[in-house]
Amino acid sequence: MSGVRVLVGTRKGAFTLSSDAKREKWDVSGPHFGGWEIYHVKGSPVDPNRLYASQSSGWFGQVIQRSNNGGKTWDPVDNKFVYDGIPGTHQWYDGTPHPWEFKRVWHLEPSLTDPDTVYAGVEDAALFRTTDGGQSWQELSGLRGHGSGPRWAPGAGGMCLHTILLDPGNPDRIFIAISAAGVFRTDDAGKTWRPINRGLRSEGIPDPKAEVGHCVHRIAMHRSRPGVLFMQKHWDVMRSDDAGESWQEVSGNLPSDFGFSIDVHAHEPETIYVVPIKSDSEHYPPDGKLRVYRSRTGGNEWEALTNGLPQRDCYVNVLRDAMAVDSLDSCGIYFGTTGGQVYASADAGDHWAPIVRDLPAVVSVEVQTLP
Amino acid sequence: MIRIELPAHLRTLARINGDVTLDVVGQATQRSVLDAIEARYPMLRGTIRDHVTQQRRPFVRFFACEEDLSHDPPDAPLPDAVATGAEAFLIVGAMAGG
Asked: ipTM of the assembly?
Protein backbone atom coordinates (compact mmCIF):
# COMPACT_ATOMS: atom_id res chain seq x y z
CA MET A 1 0.00 0.00 0.00
CA SER A 2 1.33 3.41 -0.86
CA GLY A 3 2.06 6.02 1.74
CA VAL A 4 3.87 9.23 2.45
CA ARG A 5 6.95 10.22 4.38
CA VAL A 6 7.23 13.85 5.46
CA LEU A 7 10.80 15.04 6.01
CA VAL A 8 10.92 17.92 8.47
CA GLY A 9 13.92 20.11 9.18
CA THR A 10 13.82 22.19 12.37
CA ARG A 11 16.06 24.51 14.34
CA LYS A 12 17.00 21.63 16.64
CA GLY A 13 16.92 18.45 14.59
CA ALA A 14 15.16 16.49 11.85
CA PHE A 15 11.96 14.49 12.08
CA THR A 16 10.23 12.04 9.78
CA LEU A 17 6.46 11.69 9.81
CA SER A 18 5.05 8.59 8.14
CA SER A 19 1.56 7.50 7.19
CA ASP A 20 -0.28 5.24 4.83
CA ALA A 21 -2.17 6.74 1.91
CA LYS A 22 -5.13 7.68 4.09
CA ARG A 23 -2.90 10.20 5.85
CA GLU A 24 -4.87 9.98 9.07
CA LYS A 25 -2.51 8.20 11.48
CA TRP A 26 1.10 9.23 11.72
CA ASP A 27 4.29 7.79 13.14
CA VAL A 28 6.77 10.41 14.28
CA SER A 29 10.49 9.63 14.29
CA GLY A 30 13.15 11.92 15.68
CA PRO A 31 14.82 14.09 16.58
CA HIS A 32 17.62 13.06 14.30
CA PHE A 33 20.80 15.14 14.71
CA GLY A 34 19.28 16.67 17.85
CA GLY A 35 20.55 20.13 18.68
CA TRP A 36 21.66 20.93 15.13
CA GLU A 37 19.86 23.18 12.69
CA ILE A 38 18.46 21.11 9.85
CA TYR A 39 17.83 23.48 7.00
CA HIS A 40 16.67 20.81 4.57
CA VAL A 41 16.10 17.08 4.09
CA LYS A 42 15.17 15.69 0.69
CA GLY A 43 14.93 12.32 -1.00
CA SER A 44 15.99 11.21 -4.44
CA PRO A 45 13.09 11.01 -6.90
CA VAL A 46 14.58 7.83 -8.38
CA ASP A 47 15.49 6.12 -5.11
CA PRO A 48 13.20 7.15 -2.25
CA ASN A 49 15.43 5.41 0.28
CA ARG A 50 18.28 7.77 -0.59
CA LEU A 51 17.96 10.88 1.56
CA TYR A 52 20.24 13.85 2.03
CA ALA A 53 20.19 16.24 4.99
CA SER A 54 21.84 19.58 5.59
CA GLN A 55 22.94 19.77 9.23
CA SER A 56 24.64 22.87 10.60
CA SER A 57 25.43 24.74 13.77
CA GLY A 58 26.93 28.04 14.76
CA TRP A 59 29.59 26.15 16.70
CA PHE A 60 30.63 23.37 14.37
CA GLY A 61 29.66 24.54 10.89
CA GLN A 62 28.22 22.45 8.10
CA VAL A 63 27.68 18.68 7.94
CA ILE A 64 25.93 16.76 5.17
CA GLN A 65 24.27 13.47 6.08
CA ARG A 66 23.16 10.72 3.72
CA SER A 67 20.81 7.82 4.33
CA ASN A 68 20.49 4.78 2.08
CA ASN A 69 17.55 3.27 3.93
CA GLY A 70 14.90 5.93 4.11
CA GLY A 71 16.27 7.60 7.21
CA LYS A 72 16.73 4.58 9.48
CA THR A 73 20.48 5.23 9.61
CA TRP A 74 22.62 8.12 8.43
CA ASP A 75 26.27 8.66 7.59
CA PRO A 76 28.10 11.95 7.24
CA VAL A 77 29.53 12.61 3.79
CA ASP A 78 31.78 15.39 2.57
CA ASN A 79 31.16 18.85 4.00
CA LYS A 80 33.82 20.79 2.13
CA PHE A 81 32.20 23.62 0.16
CA VAL A 82 34.97 25.74 -1.27
CA TYR A 83 34.26 28.53 -3.74
CA ASP A 84 35.96 28.23 -7.07
CA GLY A 85 38.81 30.72 -7.46
CA ILE A 86 38.90 34.01 -5.59
CA PRO A 87 35.39 34.48 -4.21
CA GLY A 88 35.30 38.28 -4.51
CA THR A 89 32.71 40.49 -2.87
CA HIS A 90 28.97 41.06 -2.81
CA GLN A 91 27.06 43.98 -1.31
CA TRP A 92 26.58 44.13 2.42
CA TYR A 93 23.36 45.52 3.94
CA ASP A 94 24.75 49.06 3.80
CA GLY A 95 25.86 48.74 0.18
CA THR A 96 29.56 48.31 0.93
CA PRO A 97 31.54 45.39 -0.54
CA HIS A 98 31.66 42.31 1.66
CA PRO A 99 33.72 39.17 1.05
CA TRP A 100 31.94 36.00 -0.03
CA GLU A 101 31.98 33.57 2.94
CA PHE A 102 30.47 30.10 3.09
CA LYS A 103 28.02 29.78 5.97
CA ARG A 104 25.64 26.87 5.39
CA VAL A 105 23.68 24.77 2.92
CA TRP A 106 20.07 25.94 2.66
CA HIS A 107 18.70 23.53 0.09
CA LEU A 108 19.59 20.12 -1.34
CA GLU A 109 18.02 19.16 -4.66
CA PRO A 110 18.66 15.57 -5.76
CA SER A 111 18.84 14.90 -9.49
CA LEU A 112 15.71 13.68 -11.23
CA THR A 113 17.62 10.77 -12.75
CA ASP A 114 20.65 9.88 -10.60
CA PRO A 115 20.58 9.34 -6.83
CA ASP A 116 24.29 10.18 -6.55
CA THR A 117 23.89 13.62 -8.11
CA VAL A 118 22.67 16.41 -5.86
CA TYR A 119 22.67 20.19 -6.15
CA ALA A 120 23.29 22.29 -3.05
CA GLY A 121 22.24 25.91 -2.66
CA VAL A 122 24.40 27.67 -0.11
CA GLU A 123 24.88 30.91 1.81
CA ASP A 124 26.73 33.08 0.75
CA ALA A 125 24.92 32.39 -2.47
CA ALA A 126 26.41 29.79 -4.77
CA LEU A 127 25.43 26.49 -6.34
CA PHE A 128 27.40 23.31 -5.70
CA ARG A 129 26.96 19.80 -7.09
CA THR A 130 28.04 16.33 -6.14
CA THR A 131 28.01 13.45 -8.61
CA ASP A 132 29.31 10.83 -6.19
CA GLY A 133 26.62 10.72 -3.55
CA GLY A 134 28.11 13.53 -1.48
CA GLN A 135 31.69 12.32 -1.31
CA SER A 136 32.82 15.59 -2.90
CA TRP A 137 31.23 18.89 -3.90
CA GLN A 138 32.18 21.24 -6.73
CA GLU A 139 30.89 24.73 -7.32
CA LEU A 140 29.06 25.53 -10.57
CA SER A 141 30.89 28.82 -10.56
CA GLY A 142 29.41 30.19 -13.76
CA LEU A 143 26.53 31.43 -11.63
CA ARG A 144 28.61 33.58 -9.30
CA GLY A 145 30.93 34.47 -12.12
CA HIS A 146 28.39 35.69 -14.59
CA GLY A 147 29.02 39.30 -13.65
CA SER A 148 26.32 40.61 -11.35
CA GLY A 149 27.62 38.98 -8.16
CA PRO A 150 29.04 42.23 -6.73
CA ARG A 151 25.48 43.65 -6.84
CA TRP A 152 23.86 40.79 -4.91
CA ALA A 153 22.97 41.54 -1.29
CA PRO A 154 21.73 39.49 1.66
CA GLY A 155 18.13 39.41 2.75
CA ALA A 156 17.36 39.40 6.46
CA GLY A 157 18.05 35.67 6.58
CA GLY A 158 21.40 35.93 4.82
CA MET A 159 22.45 35.84 1.19
CA CYS A 160 21.12 32.41 0.44
CA LEU A 161 20.56 30.35 -2.68
CA HIS A 162 17.36 28.74 -1.46
CA THR A 163 15.50 27.33 -4.47
CA ILE A 164 16.68 24.92 -7.16
CA LEU A 165 14.21 23.76 -9.82
CA LEU A 166 15.33 21.09 -12.29
CA ASP A 167 13.47 21.08 -15.59
CA PRO A 168 12.00 17.58 -16.06
CA GLY A 169 11.92 17.99 -19.83
CA ASN A 170 15.33 19.52 -20.36
CA PRO A 171 18.29 18.23 -18.33
CA ASP A 172 20.34 21.27 -19.31
CA ARG A 173 17.88 23.77 -17.82
CA ILE A 174 17.97 24.70 -14.13
CA PHE A 175 16.30 27.61 -12.33
CA ILE A 176 17.67 28.93 -9.04
CA ALA A 177 16.63 31.78 -6.78
CA ILE A 178 18.67 33.91 -4.41
CA SER A 179 17.71 36.36 -1.68
CA ALA A 180 18.39 39.10 -2.54
CA ALA A 181 19.48 38.79 -6.13
CA GLY A 182 16.58 37.17 -7.97
CA VAL A 183 16.02 34.25 -10.31
CA PHE A 184 18.68 32.87 -12.65
CA ARG A 185 18.49 30.23 -15.38
CA THR A 186 21.02 28.05 -17.09
CA ASP A 187 20.36 26.31 -20.40
CA ASP A 188 23.69 24.50 -20.55
CA ALA A 189 23.62 22.40 -17.39
CA GLY A 190 25.14 25.06 -15.19
CA LYS A 191 28.04 26.37 -17.24
CA THR A 192 26.51 29.78 -17.87
CA TRP A 193 23.66 31.63 -16.25
CA ARG A 194 21.62 34.73 -16.75
CA PRO A 195 19.22 36.66 -14.53
CA ILE A 196 15.53 36.34 -15.45
CA ASN A 197 13.84 39.05 -13.42
CA ARG A 198 12.07 41.20 -16.01
CA GLY A 199 8.73 42.29 -14.64
CA LEU A 200 9.75 42.17 -11.00
CA ARG A 201 9.42 45.42 -9.12
CA SER A 202 10.98 45.91 -5.69
CA GLU A 203 10.60 49.26 -3.96
CA GLY A 204 13.37 48.56 -1.47
CA ILE A 205 16.21 48.82 -3.98
CA PRO A 206 17.51 51.91 -5.77
CA ASP A 207 16.18 50.85 -9.18
CA PRO A 208 12.92 48.99 -8.53
CA LYS A 209 13.19 47.25 -11.91
CA ALA A 210 16.87 46.36 -11.67
CA GLU A 211 18.25 43.32 -13.43
CA VAL A 212 19.31 41.86 -10.07
CA GLY A 213 18.73 42.70 -6.42
CA HIS A 214 15.20 41.36 -5.94
CA CYS A 215 14.40 39.45 -2.78
CA VAL A 216 12.77 36.39 -4.29
CA HIS A 217 11.57 34.14 -1.50
CA ARG A 218 10.58 31.04 -3.42
CA ILE A 219 9.73 29.78 -6.90
CA ALA A 220 7.74 26.70 -7.87
CA MET A 221 6.74 24.80 -11.00
CA HIS A 222 4.55 21.89 -12.00
CA ARG A 223 6.40 18.97 -13.55
CA SER A 224 4.12 18.90 -16.58
CA ARG A 225 4.70 22.58 -17.43
CA PRO A 226 8.28 23.53 -16.59
CA GLY A 227 7.95 26.76 -18.56
CA VAL A 228 5.38 28.11 -16.11
CA LEU A 229 6.87 29.41 -12.88
CA PHE A 230 5.22 30.82 -9.78
CA MET A 231 7.01 33.10 -7.33
CA GLN A 232 6.50 34.39 -3.84
CA LYS A 233 8.62 37.51 -3.76
CA HIS A 234 9.35 39.53 -0.61
CA TRP A 235 6.24 41.43 -1.59
CA ASP A 236 4.16 40.25 -4.59
CA VAL A 237 3.12 36.87 -5.90
CA MET A 238 4.21 36.52 -9.52
CA ARG A 239 3.97 34.11 -12.44
CA SER A 240 5.89 33.58 -15.64
CA ASP A 241 4.57 31.72 -18.69
CA ASP A 242 7.82 31.89 -20.63
CA ALA A 243 10.36 30.16 -18.37
CA GLY A 244 11.17 33.34 -16.52
CA GLU A 245 11.68 35.67 -19.49
CA SER A 246 8.95 37.91 -18.08
CA TRP A 247 6.88 38.01 -14.91
CA GLN A 248 3.38 39.27 -14.13
CA GLU A 249 1.91 39.96 -10.72
CA VAL A 250 -0.93 37.63 -9.67
CA SER A 251 -1.38 38.73 -6.05
CA GLY A 252 -5.04 39.55 -6.77
CA ASN A 253 -7.24 39.51 -3.68
CA LEU A 254 -4.70 38.14 -1.19
CA PRO A 255 -4.92 39.84 2.23
CA SER A 256 -1.15 40.38 2.04
CA ASP A 257 1.17 39.63 -0.85
CA PHE A 258 4.13 39.22 1.49
CA GLY A 259 5.07 35.65 2.34
CA PHE A 260 7.68 33.00 1.94
CA SER A 261 6.28 29.70 0.66
CA ILE A 262 4.52 28.82 -2.59
CA ASP A 263 3.72 25.47 -4.15
CA VAL A 264 1.71 23.85 -6.94
CA HIS A 265 -0.94 21.11 -6.71
CA ALA A 266 0.47 17.77 -7.87
CA HIS A 267 -2.24 17.15 -10.48
CA GLU A 268 -3.60 20.61 -11.30
CA PRO A 269 -0.91 22.87 -12.74
CA GLU A 270 -3.03 25.99 -12.33
CA THR A 271 -3.78 25.35 -8.65
CA ILE A 272 -1.27 27.07 -6.40
CA TYR A 273 -0.90 27.71 -2.68
CA VAL A 274 0.61 30.50 -0.59
CA VAL A 275 0.52 31.47 3.07
CA PRO A 276 0.17 35.26 3.33
CA ILE A 277 2.22 36.90 6.06
CA LYS A 278 1.41 40.38 7.34
CA SER A 279 4.65 42.18 6.50
CA ASP A 280 8.41 41.96 6.36
CA SER A 281 8.76 43.21 9.91
CA GLU A 282 5.74 41.33 11.27
CA HIS A 283 6.43 37.75 10.36
CA TYR A 284 3.02 36.38 11.29
CA PRO A 285 -0.33 35.95 9.51
CA PRO A 286 -2.71 38.89 9.10
CA ASP A 287 -5.31 39.20 11.87
CA GLY A 288 -3.80 36.31 13.86
CA LYS A 289 -5.48 33.85 11.45
CA LEU A 290 -3.41 31.12 9.87
CA ARG A 291 -4.80 30.83 6.35
CA VAL A 292 -3.51 29.03 3.33
CA TYR A 293 -4.70 30.69 0.15
CA ARG A 294 -5.45 28.61 -2.93
CA SER A 295 -5.87 29.83 -6.45
CA ARG A 296 -7.35 27.45 -9.02
CA THR A 297 -6.68 29.95 -11.78
CA GLY A 298 -2.92 30.24 -11.53
CA GLY A 299 -3.19 33.38 -9.44
CA ASN A 300 -5.24 36.58 -9.13
CA GLU A 301 -8.32 34.83 -7.71
CA TRP A 302 -7.62 33.37 -4.28
CA GLU A 303 -9.71 31.58 -1.67
CA ALA A 304 -8.86 31.26 2.01
CA LEU A 305 -8.48 27.72 3.34
CA THR A 306 -9.14 27.77 7.07
CA ASN A 307 -10.85 24.53 8.07
CA GLY A 308 -8.74 23.04 10.86
CA LEU A 309 -6.26 25.91 11.04
CA PRO A 310 -6.16 28.32 14.00
CA GLN A 311 -8.30 31.38 13.29
CA ARG A 312 -7.41 33.46 16.31
CA ASP A 313 -4.29 34.43 18.25
CA CYS A 314 -1.94 32.72 15.80
CA TYR A 315 1.40 34.48 15.27
CA VAL A 316 3.66 31.90 13.65
CA ASN A 317 5.53 32.13 10.37
CA VAL A 318 5.78 29.65 7.50
CA LEU A 319 9.26 29.73 6.01
CA ARG A 320 10.14 29.44 2.34
CA ASP A 321 11.05 25.76 2.24
CA ALA A 322 8.34 24.68 4.65
CA MET A 323 5.52 23.74 2.24
CA ALA A 324 5.27 20.64 0.07
CA VAL A 325 2.76 18.46 -1.74
CA ASP A 326 2.42 14.72 -2.19
CA SER A 327 1.31 13.08 -5.43
CA LEU A 328 -1.46 10.89 -4.10
CA ASP A 329 -5.00 11.27 -5.35
CA SER A 330 -6.26 13.49 -3.83
CA CYS A 331 -3.24 15.69 -3.48
CA GLY A 332 -1.90 16.20 0.03
CA ILE A 333 -0.58 19.61 1.11
CA TYR A 334 1.80 20.04 4.05
CA PHE A 335 3.39 22.97 5.79
CA GLY A 336 5.37 23.62 8.96
CA THR A 337 5.45 26.68 11.18
CA THR A 338 7.96 28.46 13.33
CA GLY A 339 5.72 27.44 16.24
CA GLY A 340 6.58 23.79 15.64
CA GLN A 341 3.33 22.62 14.07
CA VAL A 342 3.23 20.55 10.89
CA TYR A 343 -0.20 20.74 9.28
CA ALA A 344 -1.47 18.35 6.63
CA SER A 345 -4.43 18.34 4.31
CA ALA A 346 -5.30 15.12 2.49
CA ASP A 347 -7.87 16.84 0.28
CA ALA A 348 -5.93 19.57 -1.48
CA GLY A 349 -6.40 22.09 1.28
CA ASP A 350 -10.10 21.83 2.07
CA HIS A 351 -9.50 20.36 5.54
CA TRP A 352 -6.42 20.59 7.72
CA ALA A 353 -5.14 18.89 10.86
CA PRO A 354 -1.83 19.03 12.68
CA ILE A 355 0.39 15.97 12.39
CA VAL A 356 2.48 17.29 15.27
CA ARG A 357 2.10 20.45 17.31
CA ASP A 358 5.22 20.94 19.36
CA LEU A 359 8.37 20.47 17.31
CA PRO A 360 11.17 23.03 17.35
CA ALA A 361 10.67 25.83 14.83
CA VAL A 362 10.18 24.24 11.42
CA VAL A 363 12.56 25.35 8.70
CA SER A 364 11.72 22.93 5.90
CA VAL A 365 9.11 20.35 4.89
CA GLU A 366 9.44 17.86 2.05
CA VAL A 367 7.17 14.95 1.19
CA GLN A 368 7.91 11.63 -0.42
CA THR A 369 5.08 9.65 -1.95
CA LEU A 370 6.08 6.03 -1.43
CA PRO A 371 5.03 3.06 -3.57
CA MET B 1 49.63 9.17 23.75
CA ILE B 2 47.36 12.20 23.76
CA ARG B 3 43.95 12.29 25.39
CA ILE B 4 41.31 14.49 23.78
CA GLU B 5 37.90 15.46 25.07
CA LEU B 6 35.40 16.46 22.41
CA PRO B 7 32.11 18.30 22.87
CA ALA B 8 29.05 16.08 22.96
CA HIS B 9 27.77 17.02 19.51
CA LEU B 10 31.08 16.08 17.88
CA ARG B 11 31.26 12.80 19.82
CA THR B 12 27.80 11.98 18.48
CA LEU B 13 28.78 12.96 14.96
CA ALA B 14 31.91 10.77 15.07
CA ARG B 15 30.21 8.01 17.11
CA ILE B 16 32.76 8.27 19.90
CA ASN B 17 32.12 7.13 23.45
CA GLY B 18 34.25 8.92 26.02
CA ASP B 19 37.65 10.45 25.38
CA VAL B 20 39.76 9.88 22.29
CA THR B 21 43.32 8.65 22.74
CA LEU B 22 45.75 8.82 19.88
CA ASP B 23 49.43 9.14 19.01
CA VAL B 24 50.69 12.07 17.03
CA VAL B 25 53.57 12.24 14.62
CA GLY B 26 56.40 14.39 16.01
CA GLN B 27 55.82 17.09 18.57
CA ALA B 28 52.40 17.44 20.18
CA THR B 29 50.92 20.71 18.94
CA GLN B 30 47.39 21.86 18.23
CA ARG B 31 48.02 21.21 14.55
CA SER B 32 49.43 17.70 14.99
CA VAL B 33 46.66 16.73 17.39
CA LEU B 34 43.93 18.02 15.06
CA ASP B 35 45.60 16.40 12.06
CA ALA B 36 45.57 13.08 13.90
CA ILE B 37 41.99 13.28 15.08
CA GLU B 38 40.74 14.33 11.64
CA ALA B 39 42.67 11.46 10.05
CA ARG B 40 40.94 8.98 12.33
CA TYR B 41 37.53 10.66 12.17
CA PRO B 42 37.20 12.34 8.75
CA MET B 43 33.67 13.50 9.53
CA LEU B 44 35.18 15.99 11.99
CA ARG B 45 36.98 17.87 9.22
CA GLY B 46 35.62 21.37 9.03
CA THR B 47 33.82 21.17 12.37
CA ILE B 48 36.73 22.24 14.61
CA ARG B 49 38.77 24.30 12.15
CA ASP B 50 38.13 25.66 8.71
CA HIS B 51 38.77 23.30 5.80
CA VAL B 52 40.89 25.76 3.88
CA THR B 53 42.41 28.27 6.30
CA GLN B 54 42.81 25.69 9.08
CA GLN B 55 41.80 28.39 11.54
CA ARG B 56 39.88 27.40 14.66
CA ARG B 57 36.16 27.95 14.26
CA PRO B 58 35.10 31.07 16.19
CA PHE B 59 32.85 29.25 18.66
CA VAL B 60 35.35 26.47 19.42
CA ARG B 61 37.97 26.82 22.16
CA PHE B 62 40.99 24.76 23.21
CA PHE B 63 41.75 24.30 26.92
CA ALA B 64 44.32 22.20 28.81
CA CYS B 65 45.88 22.25 32.27
CA GLU B 66 43.34 24.92 33.28
CA GLU B 67 44.72 27.25 30.62
CA ASP B 68 43.02 28.71 27.54
CA LEU B 69 45.20 27.69 24.60
CA SER B 70 42.76 28.92 21.96
CA HIS B 71 44.95 31.77 20.83
CA ASP B 72 48.29 29.97 20.92
CA PRO B 73 49.98 29.44 17.57
CA PRO B 74 48.94 26.11 16.02
CA ASP B 75 52.52 24.88 15.94
CA ALA B 76 53.35 25.82 19.55
CA PRO B 77 54.17 22.77 21.69
CA LEU B 78 51.35 21.67 23.95
CA PRO B 79 52.09 21.40 27.67
CA ASP B 80 54.11 18.35 28.70
CA ALA B 81 51.20 17.06 30.73
CA VAL B 82 49.12 16.93 27.53
CA ALA B 83 51.94 15.41 25.49
CA THR B 84 52.36 12.60 28.04
CA GLY B 85 48.63 11.96 28.38
CA ALA B 86 48.49 13.05 32.02
CA GLU B 87 46.08 15.84 31.12
CA ALA B 88 43.45 15.90 28.37
CA PHE B 89 43.38 18.38 25.51
CA LEU B 90 39.90 19.85 25.72
CA ILE B 91 38.02 20.92 22.59
CA VAL B 92 35.11 22.97 23.86
CA GLY B 93 32.06 24.50 22.25
CA ALA B 94 31.89 28.08 23.49
CA MET B 95 29.24 28.73 26.10
CA ALA B 96 26.50 30.46 24.15
CA GLY B 97 22.79 30.03 23.87
CA GLY B 98 20.96 29.24 20.72
From this structure: 0.95
